[in-house]
Design a protein that fits this description.
about 35% helix, notch signaling pathway, alpha+beta, GGCT-like_sf, Hypothetical upf0131 protein ytfp, about 190 residues, 4 helices, glutathione specific gamma-glutamylcyclotransferase activity, GGCT-like, lyase, globular
């Protein structure tokens, strides 16, 4: 079984796997439209994490993990709790295209996608509003800023040829806001 990750799974799968491949799926765009009140946020301050939006002309880069034997049941049990129960995601089957030049046919992979029907779905907002929400959110897996920056780093280092305007626009908006926060904190410490 192959499992495709396009958010925190790219750097922290949390389950044992046999192999991993960087690549993409077609027909979806990655969007910070899913709320998170557990891993990267709280009930009071929901974080923003990614989901996939059907988009026939787009592709989303990430990592596919191959799980075999006993790894299958353990990984699916873990992911159903992490993504479906706590995250509000549904499971779909997609065609994954490995980045490798000598890759054969696409690989069928499971992917978790949050839909507008789930209670944590936040939907669209401006890049600046999403960045502002990410800055103030933190959950049991860490700060929401870490989630955004790790995802941007993954894209930059493992998929430099790929374009993810939404992701990098939010990163840029966050960086433009942060100096103001640091300046304010330093000013308060000096007084």
């Amino acid at each position: 079984v192959w499992i495709f990750g396009y958010g925190s799974l790219v750097w922290r799968p949390g389950f044992e796997f046999t192999s991993r491949k960087v690549g993409f799926i077609r027909g979806y765009s990655r969007r910070f439209w899913q709320g998170d009140t557990f891993h990267r946020g709280s009930e009071r301050m929901p974080g923003r994490v990614v989901t996939l939006l059907e988009d026939c002309g787009a592709c989303t880069w990430g990592v596919a993990y191959e799980v075999r034997g006993e790894q299958i049941a353990a990984s699916l049990q873990y992911l159903n709790m992490r993504e479906a129960v706590l995250g509000g995601y549904d499971t779909k089957l997609v065609k994954f295209h490995p980045q490798e030049k000598d890759a054969e046919e696409p690989i069928l992979a499971l992917v978790y996608i949050a839909t507008p029907q789930n209670p944590s779905y936040l939907g669209p907002a401006s890049e600046e509003d999403i960045a502002a929400q990410i800055i103030v959110s933190s959950g049991c897996a860490g700060h929401n800023i870490e989630y955004l920056l790790r995802l941007a780093d993954f894209m930059r280092y493992f998929c430099p040829q790929a374009e993810d305007k939404h992701l990098f626009s939010i990163e840029e908006a966050l960086i433009s806001i942060l100096p103001c926060l640091y300046y304010t904190e330093e000013s308060l410490e000096e007084t």
